[in-house]
Amino acid sequence: MQAIHVDSFKALKPSLSSSDELRRARVTRELNLKKLKRYKNFITHRDVEKEDPEEIMEAIIGDVEMLEVDENNNTEQQNVIKPKWVKFLFSKNVFDQLAATERIYRVLHRNLEQAVKEIISQGLVERLFELVQSNQNQRLKSKASLVLTEVTTYDVRDALPSNIVEAIENLLEFSPYDVKEQAVAIFGNIVGDSSKLRDLFLQSRVWFQLLKLLDESPSRTMLCYGTFALSNLCYEMNSSADFSIISQCLPLLARFIHHEDEEVISCSCWALSFLCVGSVEAVIEAGVCLRLVELLSFRWSNKILSSTLHVIGQIAAGTESHAQVVIDCNALPALHALLHHNKSEIVQETSWIISNILAGSESQIQAVIDANLYPALLKLLHNSNNKTQLEAAWAIRQSISRKRTSLLQIEYFVSVGYIENLCK
What we know:
It is built from 26 helices and no strands.
């Protein structure tokens, strides 16, 4: 599964290409340093937690300018995480920590891969977790959580603190809501990298905290991050014990596929498709099938169609009774329409579902015939790419390789040009 990033951010730093510009930049930086020093003297005798956000931002801007690259930054590129930022990150001064975190956050949006490599190699992941759990400054917690959301989109399992489960528990329990949102995103990214970590989290309070957060009228952001985390948790379950725990999210998923947000629906459907590996029956009993068929009409969203088709395909790939549920929910007319979709991947997934249904009983083969799907499948043998042709050919083959195919059905196959099309 793809990892979560925070919203894109456009850096505001201008390029310096002349001696005059460099001189102006030097003067500006010196002024900002003086401003920052004056501001810090002013704030020394005041409570940081009660500060006005605009005043805090003024200090940050001064620090950011102080941390800018030296005058030769238009020469060849060096490390994107500067030693001075690392020093400030480990400083005991909250404003130094905040300024360094702000700067790292900006750099991540310009050179994500290189910045993440340097953050890991310099041991900054554990430090960022310390800052996000601190109670010194809410803006620092928020910004550190955004940085960690970006960093954990890469595999950082070897750089995580030893108390990672406890750290996520604390963030979900005691943090402001915006930090809780990022904590869920971080959690989703981490469990997508390691089945061992996933098992640890499932045995901890984090799992129940996540279910509670998602059940309490969550924000759109929380829902997007939460359903992404659920899809990663449901992926490649190792045992029936895993399923008994993870299946507790089925009522939530059944609710979320009715949400209006495309990302929430898609992630929920992927989670359902992974749960089908554990038990198709449990997914059916959650009452999701009718809504899944409704989602097949969302032709404007390939993301929703792809994930929905995968769930329905997994259900149809079960027993004959499972495939019959798909038929009884009136899925065949929707599948017929999708055989004419302009995206080959959608057509392939649709053909795969039909082939699963055709592997069933004589009455199920007849249902496909009555829905007039065969002419469309035969057309795909000539007017599509190789992968789609193979899926269509396999679907057609399923219908005549069964002992329960009736003579009348075989006559129908001949009448619609089955033999001629295969010979071509």
